[in-house]
Amino acid sequence: LFYAAPLPGGEPANRGRLLVMVRDRTAQKKLEKMRTDFIANASHELRTPLASLLGFIETIENHAKDDPAAQKRFLGIMRAQTERMLRLVRDLISLSAIELSEAEMPAERVDLTETARAVCDMLLPIAGEGVLHVEADGPVTILADRDEVIQVIQNLADNAVKYGGEFPSVTIGVGTGAPPTMPGALRSGDTLHAVAVRLGVPEAQVAWVRVADQGEGIPRTDLPRLTERFYRIDAEKSRKKGGTGLGLAIVKHIVQRHRGGIQIESVEGQGSAFICFFPPAALAQK
Ligand code: ADP
């Protein structure tokens, strides 16, 4: 119930009647809950490593005071934790920056193929030689923000390497129209059709980048929730690999800001593919 009051008594017809206004606050409450959950999660993600850092500092000051080998080992752990916290803060800042600019449509002409190749070069020191491959027939020009597209491909390729099994092999495909599909895969997220309708262009003009791995895949129940902030299939494993739980949320926000879409497909035990749809550069002329 939002508001209730007796109707003005002047009119004889209104006498003894009530004005009642009802507002459905479900959506607003859900949004508020998401916000408070996010703050609670972010605080927890930062508090845990900070408490652990304090523990290590105290150990180095006391028990390990005269043990250089133990000190060296603890400092290594402390460095890894500090680096992860820095990544988390950087990801939190990216996420809020993207949210702030969500209403504006990016307007640069960006070649997806060239951008995918650039990301491969950037990730070479982390992924190693021969792990990342780009598959494209030629340039695919989209209407985008180049730095944000780099971040999308980087986050997806980084995950594909992290969760791609012991000897990862990752394909970054670029094209327009219908992307390749994994036989027998479960699917979640936006469809090519929905994105084409939203953009008002034929399906054949919608551009995509598809990052596919041959890793462990994604269980059915996790698939629809993967792009939520801090959602992880195995939080311990993600942390060990230096993850922040925000990579896919950032990808989703960037793609939404481009009025595109994200689709995830996976076969458990065989691998996953993350497809991001983007508007063609021709849309600018419309
Ligand atoms: P994180 O920092 O934990 O990697 P992300 O938002 O990038 O955070 O991903 C969320 C979760 O989705 C990961 O923790 C992981 O469980 C799952 N995930 C992401 N990419 C893949 C992939 N290529 N294969 C399997 N699981 C994945």
From TrEMBL:
GO terms for molecular function: ATP binding; phosphoprotein phosphatase activity; phosphorelay sensor kinase activity. GO terms for biological process: cellular response to phosphate starvation. It comes from the Bacteria. It is an enzyme of class 2 (transferase). Keywords: ATP-binding, Cell membrane, Kinase, Membrane, Nucleotide-binding, Phosphoprotein, Transferase, Transmembrane, Transmembrane helix, Two-component regulatory system. Its main location: membrane. It is found in: Cell membrane. Its EC number is 2.7.13.3. It catalyses: ATP + protein L-histidine = ADP + protein N-phospho-L-histidine. Residues 41-282 form the Histidine kinase domain. GO terms for cellular component: plasma membrane. This is histidine kinase. The chain holds residues 168 to 453 of 453 of the full protein.
